[in-house]
Design a protein that fits this description.
Length: 230
């Protein structure tokens, strides 16, 4: 309990420090309630559970991380969800952001390109009772057209550019929340809103640091490299 209280206090402090950038003094009450309800330690490997309630990222394996709680809360807030929404998440990771979203909306569809993480997240979310979530192993750059259009899309890894399929799969008036920038360089968290004429309106929120969005081409190149080394 003390760890959770410390984490919530850390989020509130970060909001206060960045209020001039994010344009608000507090995050949505529904988002903060969801953060309280999801046990973050369940989404970390045993060796890193001591970091569960720190307000910082942590490794989850396969070269990936679980995002800083403040960033998870902020991105969830920026998505501006309603309880009746259907949301697409790109980058399931450990499933922590997925679980937060499941508390806020009717249905979450989540894509994870790393098969091991996808399998683990599916089992974890099912075990913990998040039954309005569907996880699939796949390339998030192309979205998930079968269930489109979505009331919102959230991307939990940094893209070099905004993938057009994600714009195409947004409902009019819906938001895409995505970090954009080069790998391990400057990145900007952006909110993109789709207008009635099909055009988009984008605004930068603040600088962030995410692992790069992995595409199918990246995975294929990695596998070929490993085969060559053997």
């Amino acid at each position: 309990m003390k760890g959770l209280q410390r984490m919530m206090k850390g989020i509130e402090m970060e909001v206060n420090l960045t209020r001039h950038l994010i344009g608000k003094d507090v995050l949505d009450d529904r988002v903060m309630a969801a953060i309280k309800q999801v046990p973050r330690h369940e989404f970390l490997p045993a060796d890193f559970r001591f970091l569960a309630y720190d307000n910082g990222p942590a490794p989850i394996g396969s070269g990936q991380t679980i995002s800083q709680p403040y960033i998870v809360a902020l991105m969830s807030d920026l998505l501006d969800t309603k309880p009746t929404d259907t949301i697409l998440e790109i980058g399931t990771g450990s499933g922590y952001q997925t679980a937060i979203l499941s508390k806020l909306v009717k249905q979450v569809y989540s894509l994870e390109i790393i098969e091991e993480l996808s399998t683990q997240a599916t089992r974890r979310l099912k075990k913990l009772g998040y039954d309005n979530v569907t996880v699939r192993n796949g390339d998030g750059s192309f979205g998930w057209p079968e269930h489109a259009p979505y009331d919102g899309i959230i991307v939990t890894a940094a893209a070099a550019y905004i993938p057009q399929p994600l714009i195409d799969q947004l409902k009019v008036g819906a938001r895409l929340v995505i970090p954009v920038g080069l790998p391990y360089s400057y990145q900007e968290l952006m909110v993109v809103e789709k207008k009635a004429d099909g055009k988009v309106e984008a605004r930068n929120i603040l600088g962030v640091s995410f692992v790069p969005l992995v595409s199918g081409c990246d995975v294929e190149a990695k596998n070929l490299g490993e085969q060559h080394d053997q």
